[in-house]
């Protein structure tokens, strides 16, 4: 029997989302970005919102994300994606707007933008890739770098007295009244990827329902920046990052309205 008849496309476990282009990704082998892109494409496709979705990608490893997911994209300066997304969402309230940002971009250079956009409850989705390092620019320490973690700028490990504590920015964002859904997920196993996809889908459904800001952190690997094999990077992430950045929902609530801040007699 012809092998093509045994292995038919409809019988394959994996089916490439139609929204993913055929362009070869520039990400390093073992990088989490590719899986995150696939999940995003699947969610947008399943919700049938390709024509109304606009992604905003700033400077970082994902700067060329527009090459891989066939939707409308807007580039932003480093850290400024939430500000750009705010403008797009307000001018086009019928669109579904999301940002796709790394930890150096979102938690350092763009801290003001992300905090105030979330506090205002801008109607958008934020996809936050946290690999605890500046991946694109040479593997420097990021705000999310763990204590003791070796990077290009902390060759002896991140030191508390010199560098301060790692920033759990997702927990901070979960305290802001404008956020309706805040969660931390990962994509290092098939089971984790399925949970992450559900979280991303919930975030986009919230955007469609005008529930304010939904924030999805994806704890990720950077095996190139960490100087590890993909397998070792996954193991290191499980042993070191998950204890400090535990996976799960942080906030799941309706967008808080003005009445929540009105003094009651």
Biggest sheet character: 7 strands, mixed
Find the structural class using helix and strand composition: alpha/beta
Number of helices: 10
The sequence of SSEs as H and E is HHEEHEHHEHHEHEHHE
Indicate the mean pLDDT.
Answer: 91
- CATH structural class: Alpha Beta
Uncertain segments of ≥5 residues (pLDDT<50)? 260-265
Number of strands: 7
Number of domains: 1
Account of the protein in words:
The chain is α/β, with parallel strands linked by helices and 265 residues long. It has a single domain (26-254), classed as Thiamin diphosphate (ThDP)-binding fold, Pyr/PP domains (Rossmann fold, 3-Layer(aba) Sandwich), CATH 3.40.50. Helix content is 35%, strand content 16%. The chain is built from 10 helices and 7 strands. The protein has a 7-stranded mixed beta sheet, with helices on both faces. Helix 8 links the parallel strand 5 (179-186) and strand 6. Residues 260-265 have low confidence and may be disordered.
Summary?
The chain contains ten helices and seven strands. Strands 2-1-3-4-6-5-7 form a seven-stranded mixed sheet, sandwiched between helices.
